[in-house]
Amino acid sequence: MFRDCLENVRQKTPLIHNITNYVTVNDCANVLLACGGSPIMADDEAEVEAITSICGGLNLNIGTLNTRTIEAMFLAGHKANALDHPIILDPVGAGASSLRTETAKRLVKDLNLTVIRGNISEIKTLATGSGTTKGVDADLADQVTEENLDQMIAFAKAYAKETGAIIAITGAIDLIADAKHAYVIRNGVAMLSKITGSGCMLSAMTAAYITANQENPLEAVATSVCAMGLCGEQAFAKMQQNQVGSGSFRTYLIDAIDLLDGETLEAGKRYEMR
Amino acid sequence: MFRDCLENVRQKTPLIHNITNYVTVNDCANVLLACGGSPIMADDEAEVEAITSICGGLNLNIGTLNTRTIEAMFLAGHKANALDHPIILDPVGAGASSLRTETAKRLVKDLNLTVIRGNISEIKTLATGSGTTKGVDADLADQVTEENLDQMIAFAKAYAKETGAIIAITGAIDLIADAKHAYVIRNGVAMLSKITGSGCMLSAMTAAYITANQENPLEAVATSVCAMGLCGEQAFAKMQQNQVGSGSFRTYLIDAIDLLDGETLEAGKRYEMR
Amino acid sequence: MFRDCLENVRQKTPLIHNITNYVTVNDCANVLLACGGSPIMADDEAEVEAITSICGGLNLNIGTLNTRTIEAMFLAGHKANALDHPIILDPVGAGASSLRTETAKRLVKDLNLTVIRGNISEIKTLATGSGTTKGVDADLADQVTEENLDQMIAFAKAYAKETGAIIAITGAIDLIADAKHAYVIRNGVAMLSKITGSGCMLSAMTAAYITANQENPLEAVATSVCAMGLCGEQAFAKMQQNQVGSGSFRTYLIDAIDLLDGETLEAGKRYEMR
After folding, report:
1. What is the pLDDT of residue A84?
2. Which distant-in-sequence residues (6+ apart) come within 8 Å of C132 by Cβ?
3. From C153's CA, which of B181, B266, C85, C160 has a CA 20 to 30 Å away?
4. What mean pLDDT, rounded, does chain B reach?
5. Which domains are seen in chain B, by residue range?
6. Within 13 Å and on the Cβ side, how many CA atoms surround A105?
7. Among the partner residues C97, C99, C196, nearest to A33 by beta-carbon distance
């Protein structure tokens, strides 16, 4: 039950170590608190192993990566693997530079990742080298649509099988897949792409969900993705009602994450299993 | 027409590479999205040339500069020049330390900049070495006033001629000048200086405007400055009406940028040509 | 009078140099502006001494510290001491890694600090090595309660005597102590710990208070702590009234800091001297 996944986060208050970009880091911290987790950010090589050790899960995000923080990601990742902590990778902008593409590929290869979450262009870049990119946003040419859905589900399952990680491809339609099962999620609104960091926030929140629900990681990821989509819908409705814009939408989104309960999530989730 | 400049941003969705400070970077990203552009932040020497290559314009902001990011600014700047991408420089805090002053001067000297946007103390520091500074804010002694307006316009035009860049001096009165023409803009409210980053946000937005309006850069800068001032006026009116403070003002400002249309801008712009 | 401390900040507009983490830096800058101060952030070794020299006070915060910024903290700190500028240290996450613990201890030992402000786990880690830690939050086992209040006051005074700094331990009950006197403050709400950075914001604001009230540092710290607590109460009341969440709470908190006046503070402060 999605409700159980959500309530586990609120009851266990998972402590999440984040090595993430400086653009959206504040939103990630606030979303972790709002969903019921607890954030700590640390990216120096001299302390990332210690910080990972006191946490329950690790969130690696390569936006604004640099030589120093890349090394820290590997140190923290290996420590998290040694401790059996779940790790999520957000390959922000993979495809936009070879530094990002190669770093993300190395993280996928060297670490035992629980989840890889990105837009379709980022995931295609990692899986096949063929994704196009428009900076940190997905290219329209790559998009998951009703027409290519079967093919994209097969792609996600195949990449999950190859990597051993749950693959979360988010966009207008979200696909969450392991090697055998896929959730096709239709929560969410286009407005989420009009603020920076909605993907980063989702990855941070998903880190809390997989850490608090380790016996059930696929459902935990699906719950987190549904929850973010549903909160986006609520924030958008309020934005339109109040005739305001993207600044208020961002505030309403975090409000919605803070206020979301299991009952509302169960009533609002929109997905099918494939 | 200012309306055309604004609509070009919304239609072309210019992708802007930002090397900027970590204080206001999130606001810069959200303002770029709100005005119709698309942001990417990247500051590692190993990827800035690649990132600039996939973008349309470059925003260089020296707040919280450091040895690593200074080098990245030059690499990205030379690449942008080679590709004929417009560049805007925001010399945050020039005059506050010799590192900032010297870095900004070197950027002006080595790169072919499209726009230099700062407060009067920062611009005077670069042009004449005589600006005083109060941290990242302009010193009252330097201020553009109705009394010294003729002299300041001549100063801006002369510095534009010297550098080949459009000079944008923003404050209570804004001056936007190339060697021959100047816009004197009277939009805006003092409240904009009660939140951090209103200058940084303006520079980021201006990067989108000059990228989407390359045949018409002077008007593009003037449009961006009027737009930010007008949105500040709208946000301030709403703040007073709701009897709230600077936290809400910041949200309302981004809302206003998101909602601004060409018609409202044409009706609200307040400037004269000199 | 607390009123005088508050009004001194608004009248003197103290310029504060911040070397702080990238998670909450934007909130710190906005809170400094809202309370009447003026922020500048700079962390490069090549400029921190120059920046400190033009400022009135220094705020050192070790969240997301790294090798480069640690060195900058010592350079800025020694310069601030040479100039007799007040310094506040926020030992974010001391206890969570030896890098943080050792860096904080060295800062306490090498610098002449005016204030050390942290949660009880952080302060116990520094004073006795015995604090437990839950990342950047205090551990329940360490908490200041009505039952251990006498003992904790004695602890705070003893550590103040040892370090020569005012010790500010904030949590459900706040203790502000020098060697002889302690304020026990009961303003505040638990909601403040549901957003990231309320501690960082308090340290930044306190930097402004001690800089504008150098003849009266203990009362200045107490005023800042009461002010933040009272603003939290106002923000929480508004959040509940509007049935919104933590995103709005953060905005309301900054609004409240911006709007706070001496009369409201005097009416709302809740403390006793011990």
Report:
1. 98
2. C95, C121, C139, C141, C142
3. C85
4. 96
5. 2-273 (3.40.1190.20)
6. 14
7. C196
Bridge partners (DSSP) listed for residue B124: none
pLDDT (average), residues A100-124: 97
Q: What is the dihedral of CA B103, B106, B107, B112, to 10 degrees?
A: 170
Mapping DSSP to helix (H, G, I), strand (E, B) and coil, where does residue C17 land? strand
CA atoms in the 13 A half-sphere facing the CB of B252: 25
Residue C242 forms contact with A (CB below 8 Å): no
Q: Does the structure show a pLDDT above 70 at C71? A: yes
Q: Which two tokens stand for residue A109?
A: 């290869």
| Polymer length of chain A | 274
Tell which phi-psi region holds residue A114, choosing left (phi > 0), alpha (psi between -120 and 50) or beta. Answer: alpha
C215 Cα distance to chain centroid: 18
Q: What is the pLDDT of residue B71?
A: 97
Helices assigned H by DSSP within B48-172:
48-54, 67-82, 98-110, 120-128, 149-163
Per-residue pLDDT of B52-75, as tens digits, reads 999 999 999 999 999 999 999 999
Q: Tell me if B29 and A22 make a contact (CB, 8 A cut-off).
A: no
| DSSP letters spanning A133-197 | EETTEE-GGG---STTHHHHHHHHHHHHHHHSSEEEE-SSSEEEE-SS-EEEE----GGGGGSTT
Query: What confidence score (pLDDT) does residue A129 get?
Result: 82
Output the six-digit token pair for B244: 């709230």
Q: Return the pLDDT at A152.
A: 97
SS3 B58: strand
pLDDT at A137 over 90: no
Interchain CB contacts (distance < 8 Å): B and C? 101
Q: What are phi and psi of B233, to 5 degrees?
A: -65, -45
Smallest CA–CA separation between C175 and chain B, in Å?
28
pLDDT in tens, A155-195: 999 999 999 999 999 999 999 999 999 999 999 999 999 99
C59: which 2 tokens?
A: 């705020």
Token readout for C156 is 């705070």
Q: Over chain A, what is the mean pLDDT?
A: 96
Residues 68 through 87 of chain A touching chain C, CB cutoff 8 Å: 68
Interatomic CA distance for residues A147 and A92, integer angstroms = 26
**Measured distance CA(C63)–CA(C65) in Å, rounded:** 5
Torsion angle defined by CA atoms of residues C127, C132, C135 and C137, in that order, rounded to the nearest 10 degrees: -80
Counting every residue written for chain B, the total comes to 274
* Residue of C79, C67, C163 lying closest to C115 (CA atoms): C163
Judged against a pLDDT cut of 80, whether residue A252 lies above it is answered with: yes
Residue B38: what residue type?
A: S
At residue A57, the 3 state secondary structure works out as: strand
Q: What is the pTM of this model?
A: 0.97
Half-sphere exposure of A267 (CA within 13 A, CB side): 7
What's the pLDDT score for residue B130? Answer: 74
Pull the structure tokens for residue C242.
């509007």
Q: Is C99 on the interface with B (CB under 8 A)?
A: no
Letter for the amino acid at C147? Answer: E
CA distance B240 to B257: 18
Q: Which of the other chains make 3 or more beta carbon contacts under 8 angstroms with chain A?
A: B, C
What backbone phi and psi angles, to 5 degrees, belong to C38?
Answer: -140, 125
Residue B233's pLDDT band (boundaries 50, 70, 90)?
Answer: very high
Q: Given pLDDT bands bounded at 50, 70 and 90, which one contains residue C134?
A: low
Q: Which long-range contacts (CB under 8 A, 24 or more apart) does C155-161 make?
A: C155/C124, C155/C127, C156/C123, C156/C182, C157/C182, C158/C127, C159/C123, C159/C126, C159/C127
